[in-house]
Write a structure and sequence with these properties.
Elements: H1 2-15, H2 17-36, H3 46-55, H4 61-69, H5 73-76, H6 85-100, H7 102-108, H8 111-142, H9 152-179, H10 184-194, H11 197-210, H12 215-237, E1 239-249, E2 256-267, H13 274-283, H14 285-293, H15 296-304, H16 310-331, H17 334-343, H18 355-389, H19 398-422, H20 424-430
Antiparallel strand pairs: 1-2
Length: 445
Amino acid sequence: MAQNNAASAVQNLFRTPELKDKILFTLLCLLVYRIGAAVTAPGINPIAIQDFMNSQKNGGGLLGLYNLFTGGQLARATVFALGIMPYISASIFQQIAQAVVPQFDKMSKDEEGRKKINQWSRYATVLLAAVQGWGFAIFAESLQGAVANPGFGFRLSMTFFLTTGAIFVMWLGEQITERGIGNGASLMIFFSIVERIWPGIMSAFTFVSTGVIGAFSLVVLIIMMIAVVAAVVAITMAARRVLIQIPQRTMARGRQREASRSFIPLRINSSGVMPIVFAQSVIVVPGALAQFAGNQRMRDFADYLAPGSTLYYILMGILILFFTYFYTSIIFNPIDLAENLKKQGGFIPGVKPGARTAEYIDDVVSKITLPGAIFLTLVALLPIWISKLINVPFNFGGTSLLIVVGVALDTIQQMNQHLLLRKYDGFMKKGRVRFRGRQGAPGGF
């Protein structure tokens, strides 16, 4: 029965002309993105860069983390080597500015202001891409055999190609968001990560055939992967619903109907994968500095922070916990939520509207953020634990898994909304995406 419902839902995707066009447009843009990801920038030898990344103890440090989100394009030195990351970095700076600078926050609430902020984000993307492109050119020159003709001309040309590629990828992502389905930037990262799944599976079987890992270890790895995927899906969709009531008036004979009951879903993991990204970006800084400085003491200190060390586990856990609360405070504003609820005449039973409601919501978010932060820590550290326990010579990417699951669920939800608008009677009876949790009064899932 479930298979029939799923097959029928997939058929409905292409029976709806508007949704079909959106899906085909999105796939076309992603195809263009993947074609560009196969074109190597001129004047550089990608094999030397790949050999360097493979030789690093911590997976390439900051470059390895960047390489993850670009689907290996940085190691291949393609024209899209910077990918969508400069645009995402600029967007993150924009979110932080809105939370810290009152003028930015005021502009974000106005349509014209939002257009200006978005335009500034595009300018920041160009600047970041140029700086990163120049830095990558200098890095490539430091590797033996990576650049045939180093010098100012090579740096300038590499900066031009990488910056142009980043601008084109940014434009492509915006086109997907506006005319396609899902978030363009997220989908590009999604497909970059998914592209590397099949080679990873093949390498796992190669390890078994060559005796590097045993068959039992492979079975344990598969079971752990399935368990982690199930846990990620559950936590990503889990939320605590706060009961609210909104009075509804009817014009018939001047009577007032009973207040309607609704819920505010507060996600347990509202910050997504960003705390892990921030934590990894910070923790690899000592290694990156030691690499370029050439100081032996700094290299020794960086070894203490290498993945697998006790200090790495402790600092990683602390950083993820900190950035989870930090990023949640940026993207979630309980004061605005309480004010909007008050304007609608809604209220939380037993809680006064206004400041008390904001305090109540902030308290609930603070409590449910802690288990979300612990979960993110486990997901980030689990790959390293698995590698050490069953002697697997590769890491099962918890960060990648969070991105893939989050983007997939968000895209499916958008498709579901399109289908509900156009095929309401048939689709609603066959199923829908549900939040997980208990239902009840104030409080939650």
